Amino acid sequence: MRLLILSVCLQLPVCLLAQTTSLPTTPWGTWLIGTLTIPGNDTSRWGGFAEIQTRSNGLFKQYFYSEIKGGISYDLDKNVTIMLAGGRYATSDYNELPAGPLNIEKRFWQQLQLNQYLNRIKFEHRYRIEQRWFTFRDGREEFRSRIRYRLNVFVPLNARVIGPHTTFMSVYNEIFLNPRGPAFERNRLYAGLGHQLDKHWVIQAGWVNQTNYSLASFTQGQFAPIVTAGKNNLVLAVIYRLNKHKANPAEKLPSQPD
Residue 193 pLDDT > 90, yes or no? Predict the structure, then answer.
């Protein structure tokens, strides 16, 4: 547990080292996530996933955001996986849903995932490079890129490995880096509980805080510090694993592809 706490602390936002001005937090929102995964195994290293996600500004109300994404993966070995994936992301004004999305983002990314097993504690390191194409309602188009790193820690509570009938704790922190600035664009901190019902179904419920950072500036003799805007959200997630036939069972970390 000491190692778990230390690992999470190391991933706290680096921006905390700078002086920031924090905006008032908005009410709790809701993230609903449904994921289909095809894990690789000892007979076939190829896998993939498909996911649908919706978000609302309030608890189960004021819907404003959706994601549809998927990708293919390849296991270099049992602890190293590479992935190519993409998706469509739509952001709307919940007060004006009939007017259509404010912007639609098409995203493509390359990912490296490393797993470490330290007795009962499981670590997942995820590195991702994203290419993002935006189309706004007024016809403007924009390209952005981003780098992400997530450290996810899993601790099974009633077994030594995560498998059928296992209850587990999951904690992660992810930083989002923007080459164009602000360098630290976003931080996402999550804590939750999950349960693997059988070899197919995994359910999770937790809390996520997502904080965005603006770029500090100096104009007309005035310094505008970094401004943060954070929001707490309830996360409810369901994962269905489409396991391949004749595959030897192996422990698979129930990480969220988001």
Answer: yes
The enclosing domain of 111 has a CATH number of: 2.40.160
Domain membership flag for residue 71: yes
Q: How many domains does the chain have?
A: 1
Structural domain harbouring 193: 2-201+219-241
Rg (the chain; Cα; Å): 19
pLDDT higher than 70, residue 3: no
pLDDT in tens, 88-132: 999 999 999 988 999 999 999 999 999 999 989 999 999 999 999
Instruction: Please enumerate, as own/partner, the contacts of 43-49 that have beta carbons within 8 Å and a separation of 24 or more.
Output: 43/244, 43/246, 43/247, 43/248, 44/244, 44/247, 45/74, 45/75, 45/76, 46/72, 46/73, 46/74, 47/72, 47/73, 47/74, 47/75, 47/81, 48/72, 48/73, 49/73, 49/85, 49/257
pLDDT in tens, 199-226: 999 999 999 999 998 765 455 555 444 5
pTM, full prediction: 0.85
